[in-house]
Design a protein that fits this description.
Blueprint: H1 2-13, E1 18-21, E2 26-34, E3 39-41, E4 53-61, E5 68-80, E6 84-93, E7 96-105, E8 110-119, E9 125-132, E10 139-147
Antiparallel strand pairs: 1-2, 2-4, 2-10, 3-4, 4-5, 5-6, 6-7, 7-8, 8-9, 9-10
Length: about 150
Amino acid sequence: MVAGALVASTAIAVSLVSVSSAGPNVTRIHVIEHATTDTVVDLTANGDSTGDLLTFHNEVFDSENQQAVGTSHGDCIRIEVGVSWQCRWTTTLEGGSLTVEGPFYDASPSVLAITGGTGVYRGARGSMRLVARDDAGTEFDFVFRVLLG
């Protein structure tokens, strides 16, 4: 019953986002980020190099990729050239926000830890799976598996 109430309250808060129950006390939230503001600051050797900084403040859309439902903003540091970044960012949706941290792989799906939340996501933990929707890296699926409480 508690899990159902959590899913119901979360569904109301993010009514335009794909929300479903993924098991006891787990809520699945699917949004799509449009990576339109990604900026790489070349801090070390010219070109892609360890220590470079990626910053962004992008819109996120519903799971049908039709309507803007929030934003994502954060930063990443290049850890391994052509392979991975170490990132942290916040995705803000109606009713609150979710913060994630972890690796972002250039050429494969990534799983980041949910390190917290605000509003209806207060006390959140779990994971977010990130998958590129195209080779250009202009859109990404964010699939959160949120444990509340």
